Amino acid sequence: MRDGLGEVAADVQAGAVNPYQPPNEVIPALATDPLDSVLESVQRMDFNSVIQRRDLIDAVAGTGFRIDVGTLRQLARLGAPPLLILVGISITFGPGIVSLSLQFAVAGFIAFLLYLRHRLIRNYTNVSGDIIGSARGYIDSTSMRIEQEHQTRLLRMDQLVCVTYNQRRISLCFDATFNRFETIRFDDFATPSLARDLAEQLSRVRPPVAPLPVDRRRSQPSQAEPLFSAVEPAFQYAGPVAASDLKSSDFTSQWRRLVVGATVKMTLVLGVSVGVLLSLFGMNVVTVLFCVLIAACIVPGFLAIGRAHREIHRDDQPLWYARGWVDRDGIVAITTIGQTKSNWLLFGKPEFSERSIVLKYASAPLWYILNRGQFHSEQDWNEVCRLVANRIPG
């Protein structure tokens, strides 16, 4: 289960119809959902891949499922022609026609947009660091199966939120927060042509949408039958996890640092930008114009952070609901989106508290939380604490 931390950018509303598109947050799948008709004809397609960091970068930057990244690139492209025109006028008619300060201001704004885009791409790929490595599996009409060294994921195709692609790969998102995504190169499929056809069809019915702070589908219990087998003794668990269960945990402290750090950075950028513009141009139309443009890039980030903080700390709804079991091989989690089997090597040092066990992924800023109230008895909870401590030494 993924609740990674990354910088929050502006929510950009997409125009296409999608059952998971804001502002309605989570909308139950419609009976006439066009995804159903696409999935009916899907044949099983096996793949065998090795996912590297550059694959994640290409997925985020190239396939377009993160519309905030795409928007920044488009804005930077729109700023390039005016800059070239200003430079051309200055070269042709002399530097007195267009001030050098104005040219530097336009160039600086474009560089600022590209910097924001670079930071977003870096953060989104860092959050997905756990999927780097060999991956094999398949896509069929009901599920996508991904087998990796430390985790096997079975994701329900009817829970797809977004599908995008470019010439090299397909990217699939099953999580409305877009912190979880899968990406496979077309050439790594046994039938690349069928994979390209499927990507085109799925992208039409699941286009990019703005990410949500919390995927509320996860707060509902899943009735699916387990697709993995337990190793006895196995300790069953089921129930919700709320923000209150994470108090004083590393997850909460890192989230607090993220919110404070992002707020300070955006405030500094806005303040420094306004100061530089005032020193270059004074208070005039040019200064106001650039201040408005910079604020348009930064202020939505403030709003998105506030929205995410409110959603994560809502008391009336849990962050997610999961059931499964813990055994000597690892943890099985069953949610409305799918099922995962994670072995203990996926996790780093565990964090124990009176109410929960917080397991941070070893290779990504992600957490899995086991709640004391999810277990059948106090004895089971104590046994699980001992098992985790033995399997993942501190």
Structure, described:
By secondary structure, the chain is α+β, with helices and mostly antiparallel strands. It is 41% helix and 21% strand. It has 8 helices and 14 strands. The chain has helices at residues 34-40, 53-62, 67-93, 100-127, 192-205, 250-281, 285-312, 378-391, and strands at residues 45-51, 133-139, 143-147, 151-156, 162-165, 169-173, 182-185, 235-241, 320-327, 330-334, 338-343, 347-352, 356-361, 367-371. The strands form 3 sheets. It has an 8-stranded antiparallel beta sheet with strand order 1-2-3-4-11-10-9-8, with helices on one face. A 3-stranded antiparallel beta sheet has the order 5-6-7, with helices on both faces.
